[in-house]
Amino acid sequence: MKDLYPAIEPFTSQMLPVGNGHRLYVEQVGKPDGIPVLFLHGGPGAGCEPYHRRFFNPDHYRVVLFDQRGCGHSTPHASLEANTTWDLVGDIERIRQQLNIEQWLLFGGSWGSTLALAYAQSHPDRVTGMVLRGIFLCRDEEISWFYQHGASRVFPDYWEDFIAPIPQQERDDLLHAYHRRLSGENDIDRMAAAKAWSVWEGRTASLHPNPAVVSFFSDPHTALSLARIECHYFVNHAFLRPNQLLLESDRLADIPGVIVQGRYDLICPMTSAWELHRAWPGSELKVIGDAGHSAAEPGIRSALIEATDRFAKELP
Questions:
Q1: Which residue intervals define the domain AB hydrolase-1 in the entry (predicted)?
Q2: Active-site residue, 293 included
């Protein structure tokens, strides 16, 4: 079983203006003339963590990581203005051009898989391959499963804490009830909602309880951006047409990919990974039988590193 490469620091970092007041934190690690790979974090709104740099052999890869609009080190924090899927796709192209990269491998999990698919379908000629984990196609049924009725049956104890900030009379539409609080002016209500929303995700992310994952999600800085931006995207159907990412999967025809999916992923159940794999002939599906959603789980972590090691040998 493979494990993370040693901790590494960026060889360069910058704040990149992308319009509408947004400035993105962008960093690079590894080999400056290595194989370009773009890391796409989850959420939307979670931001990057130092361990994300360690899925790639630094002797082979030039790894680009960035905090998407409104999260991590990017500014303004938790901003919803000019923050859509297509703004982020445009940001990826700006970063590619700014760094003089012709083509790159995409690596993303959960929302990062959504964004990778949206970018690859918009710019297939710029993508050499994809390593995706915990597939999230941002369809209404997937959002309803996690935020209204589905995952609640598996985690009724955690669910009770999730719905606590919402009065009984508003619980038939939790997504919009949360949206009113997360986009409202009451600072106390907004932070309470953000904490409950984010901790629900952190608690359910792994097959076995992982305090480190819960701690990251419960951090106030992360919780506010994650909850506000996720909820903003989800009430807007992720700014996608119904089932768009599957319907346009033919645009991935010439792109090889590895899909890593935890069998017991209850944030992004395996149905989406299965449907994507069937619609994308160039993909290989690796089902991890003893894992949930988190990239930190040993089996998922190992499979992701196996995939990046394989691409390091196959890509020019």
A1: 36-295
A2: yes
